[in-house]
Amino acid sequence: MTKLPYPALPVPNRWDRRGLPGWTYHSSELFELERSALFLTHWQIVGHENDIPAPGDWLTFDLLGERALIMRGRDGIVRAFHNLCRHRGARVVDGAQGHCKGALVCPFHGWVYNLDGSLRGPARPESFDDEMDRSQFGLKPIELQRFHGFLLIRFKPGPQADLAQLFAPYDADFAAYRAGEILPASGWYGKIELPVNWKSVRDVDNEGYHVAMAHPALQDLYGRTYRDLQLAGGLSISHGEFGDAPARRWSVKKYLKHHEPQDWLPSHLKNSWTYYGLFPNAVFAFTPESIQYYQEIPLNTGTTALTGRIYRRPDETRRMRIARYLAYRIDRETSEEDQQLSIWSNESMASDAFEEFHLSDLEYGVRRHHDGLRTVLPVMTLDEAPPDGKMAAENTRLQGDAPE
Q1: Whether 245 contacts 251, CB under 8 Å
Q2: Domains of the chain
């Protein structure tokens, strides 16, 4: 197998193989803490700059009661705002993606905003007092950063570093893939809702131990070489090289037939599928002919939305387009298999017979993710849930006990 150029952390000789206790997957009080201390304070992927190439193009992103609007201004700059009119709080745009020619007009009362988020003017301005300062009523900004064209936001300040520092181990690969040049492609699966806690989805995706049994197409494609690597900062890389053995499944055979080698890629990426994880809930997935991202968006304690987008090369050939479609078929089949595994796993957490995980070395990524959650929310270290109404106070107490 190819030697990989990543600063991976070794799996310890001896480590605690237990996972999170079952109660953490079904507690509504814990979910409220996850909302405020985890999801709203950590980077979330909202798209790519080439999703909104022209001034006035916009995307939206909703997360646990917060609504974001990402828009390219007349000056070409992409900005992020709360999708919330400063008058009465209505959405200033509705839908996943769109375009406005010159200004945003709130559909409730008609307040008008410029493409840089500033307030052009309220409807019926004579009905407001003379001291109203329009400069104080622009759309509220949200922190936004870019990484090789990808756009990420966080609603509140949090513990993660700026993207250039956080993603430094990914920088060379994203540059090699020319990620800043990619274009939107058909195949975005929009939103799939699963009746599970979001952690059950991430537990399945955080390890490759199950590939040989649960994912026959992936096993046929690259399962013999598949590796999960853990990096510092809540990052992870999963990597599999294809073409080392004859394929048996139709989609894999056809993919290998139509795969068009990209000589400009470095050796470790030419014949590989590589997944780049971001704590707590997102993954970038790269193949030689396409790039996608996917993430779990929790809707409530027991419901999770799977979302993502797929991109293509700007110089895509017919062979690359066919290979991208075949890769999508393999991914779709794999996702359906993982969805069922997530449901079964989530169900088990509610059983009185469930005790705890006993993880393999090949599942060390699950432990690393759980450790990251425990760092943010130390109440997850408890074997039993705190009494009703005591979750937040107990978490605060444990944070005070944590070493600096």
Answers
A1: no
A2: 1-42+178-404 (3.90.380.10), 43-157 (2.102.10.10)
